[in-house]
Amino acid sequence: MMDIFNLIDADGNGYVSKLELVASMQSNAAVDEFMTPGVDSSTVMDDEAMFEKVDALFEAIAGGKKRMQFSDFERYYRKTVTAAQPRPPSDVNRRNTRIFIIGPGFGNQINPRQSQMIENSGYQVKWCFTIPNPEQPNFPVEPYLDQIKAEMDAFRPHVVAAASKGGVYVIGLWHRRYWRGPTLMLNAHPMCTKLPQDMQVVIASGSNDEVYPNTRANLEELMATGPPNKP
């Protein structure tokens, strides 16, 4: 971690400004990958949305100060950065694992390749497209929860997944206790402000969701409301 900070702290004075961080992310691929994994920040000064995310990241690390020190950097990443460990071979039998996916919000028409990857992954997949797309704010999901539960009961999934706008249905299923099993959320819905304590939830978030963009700081705050990670 100190090595990354030293790359950012180009003049070696122990303090890093926001502009120093931005310049380092633009010019150094190792810094960019550490700060925003999987995102190319080389054009951050020409991309307003990307700059806002980097700005929010700096503010979260520096805690409102104009410059951050290594102690700020270490404190922020201590919970999120772990040494890479070889992952043991999975013992999951995909053919016997059933995944129930809330269709609206998953972008099957906009991004059919994503859906096709899931279909080709070897799992048993059930898509739920019999419910409306909850595009409007404060969309009433309650009238459709029993319908979703009936489809889930018939399929008996091991995992429930939703993306973006569809996440509001998952929140409704949690509140009704219709589903208390493992859950995957792609880009957390803004109504998801607290995670259940008695179940496993995985949140995958990136910069491609323009409907509900999230900062790393907000996501870490959300994850902190859930139970400790399990090995």
Automatic annotation (TrEMBL):
Keyword list, A-Z: Calcium
Entry annotated with the keyword Calcium: yes
Keyword Nucleotide-binding: no
Domain called EF-hand: residue spans: 1-31
Xref: SUPFAM superfamilies: EF-hand (SSF47473)
GO function terms (MF aspect): calcium ion binding
InterPro entries attached to this UniProt entry: EF-hand-dom_pair, EF_Hand_1_Ca_BS, EF_hand_dom
Protein name per Swiss-Prot or TrEMBL: EF-hand domain-containing protein
